[in-house]
Amino acid sequence: MASLETPICEFGWKAVDFDLLGVDGQRYNLAKAKGENGLLIMFICNHCPYVKAIQDRMIRDVRELAPHGINAIAIMSNDPADYPEDSFDNMIQIAKQFDYPFPYVWDETQMIAKAYGAVCTPDFFGLNSKLELQYRGRLDASRKEAAPANVRRDLFEGMVQVAQTGRGPENQIPSIGCSIKWRT
Questions:
Q1: Most buried pick, 30, 85, 121, 184, via CB within 10 A?
Q2: Which CDD domains does its entry note (predicted)?
Q3: What is the DSSP letter of 67?
């Protein structure tokens, strides 16, 4: 299982639209997912230890960003043929188990992960109200295990700044996680 780091944030990059099926049976695109002040797109999956380590914090941060006008959506792009834990049925189970406060959608063709240049799970894309990239960093100092509870909340603080100013922080620490499981 290869661990990868996300690239440096390409400020101003325009988000690519999508039309993906959610575990709730609805289809989602940028317009439907976006909040008044922006959108947090999270490439995650069900089996990755890096995602599992931050699951509760990710949910907490999404809930706390909502009053700032930042919505979130999670995209699962892994190939479930080799990773059955990442199947659509298991996505439904995980979303229910953790009571996800955001749409959880399947990028079955992997075209959206490729269009975004997603490299790992978790990979966070923080967009402003114009759907321009302003944050591409980590959630916090957690890795395969959760960091201490009092660590800096990099993603939350960065996205609050985006909500308030339309710009993300100049200095961002890359996210690290398991590689996207590409179809061969």
A1: 121
A2: PRX_like1 (cd02969)
A3: G
- DSSP-based three-state secondary structure for 171: coil
Taking the CB of residue 2, how many other CB atoms lie within 10 A of it?
9
**Beta-sheet strand order (sheet of 104-106):** 27-28, 20-22, 104-106, 70-76, 38-43, 123-127, 133-135
The pair of three-digit structure tokens given for residue 44, joined into one six-digit string: 């995650």
Which residues are CB-contacts of 26 (< 8 A; sequence separation ≥ 6)? 103
Rounded distance between C-alpha atoms, residue 115 and residue 182, angstroms: 13
Residue with tokens 């944030």: 9
- The answer to whether 68 and 37 have CB atoms below 8 angstroms apart is yes
Lookup: tokens for 23? 């575990």
Q: Which residue positions in the chain have pLDDT lower than 70?
A: 1-2
Neighbours of 70 (CB within 10 A): 26
One-letter identity of residue 95: A
Under 8 Å between Cβ of 63 and 153: no
Backbone angle region of 98, left / alpha / beta, with phi > 0 → left and psi within -120 to 50 → alpha: alpha
- pLDDT tens-digit profile of 28-50? 999 999 999 999 999 999 999 99
Are residues 10 and 136 in contact, defined by beta-carbon separation less than 8 angstroms?
yes
Structure token digits, residue 30: 């940028």
- Answer whether 148's CB lies under 8 Å from 92's CB: no
